[in-house]
Amino acid sequence: MAEDQSGHVTLLLQNWVKGDREALTALAPLVYQELRRLAHFKLKAERPDHTLQSAALVNEAFIRLMGADPVELRSRAHFIAVASRLMRQVLVDYARSRNAGKRDGGSRIDLDQLAEFPVAEDAALLALDDALESLGQIDERQARIVEMKFFGGLSAPEISEVTGLSRATVDRDWATARVWLHRQMSNPAAP
C-alpha cells in the first residue's frame, strides 16, 4: 500500500474511532484487496472443500467490524491485525458449527507443519484455536503475537508496530509461544 494511501487509511480509521460511521464505508475500497489477500491466505490453510470464499470471509469480517463499537485502531497494520482476528473468529465459528459433535479431541497436530502446510480438517483449526485460547490464559501477549503472525500473516516488524513492542521481544515471544503450542498440541493433556 502506498505511503500516502496508508496515511489516508489511518485518517479514516481515526475518524471512525471518533464516531464517523461513514469513514468505515470509505475505508472499505481502500483496504479491500489487502483484506482479500489476507482472506485468501487464511482459506489456503483450510480444508480443500471449504465452502467459504475470500469475498464472503471479508464481508463477514466487515459485518462484525461494523456491528461492533469502534476500537482504537492506530495504523493500517493494526487494522489488518484486528481484521485478521475477526476472520479467525469467523472461521472458528464456521468450523465449530460444521463439526458440532464430531470433534476429535485426541488428534495430534504438529505446529510447524500447521504453519507451513494447508490444514486439511476443521479439527486442526479448532485444536489450534483451543491451544491459542489456553495460551491466552497464561500469556495474553504471546497469544496475540501468534494470532497476528499465524492468522494475520503479519511480519515481526509489523507486529512490533501494532503492539509497540521491540522486534526482539516479538521474536522472543513468538519462539516461546511456538514451543508452548507445539507441546500443548502434541500432548493435549499437558498443562
Description of the structure:
The protein contains 9 helices and no strands. It is mostly helical and 191 residues long. It has one domain. Helix 1 (3-17) packs across helix 2 and helix 6 (122-138) runs antiparallel to helix 7. It is globular. The termini are far apart.
List SSEs in N-to-C order.
HHHHHHHHH
Q: Beta-strand level of the residues, as a percent range?
A: under 5%
Q: How would you state the average pLDDT, rounded? A: 76
What general outline do the C-alpha atoms trace?
A: globular
Give a count of the beta strands, DSSP E runs of length 2 or more.
0
Residue share in helices? over 70%
User: Main sheet?
Assistant: none
Q: Gyration radius, to the nearest Å?
A: 17 Å
Number of helices: 9
Number of domains: 1
Task: Quote the distance from N terminus to C terminus.
Answer: 42 Å
Based on helices, strands and strand pairing, what is the structural class?
mainly alpha
Uncertain segments are: 103-109, 116-120
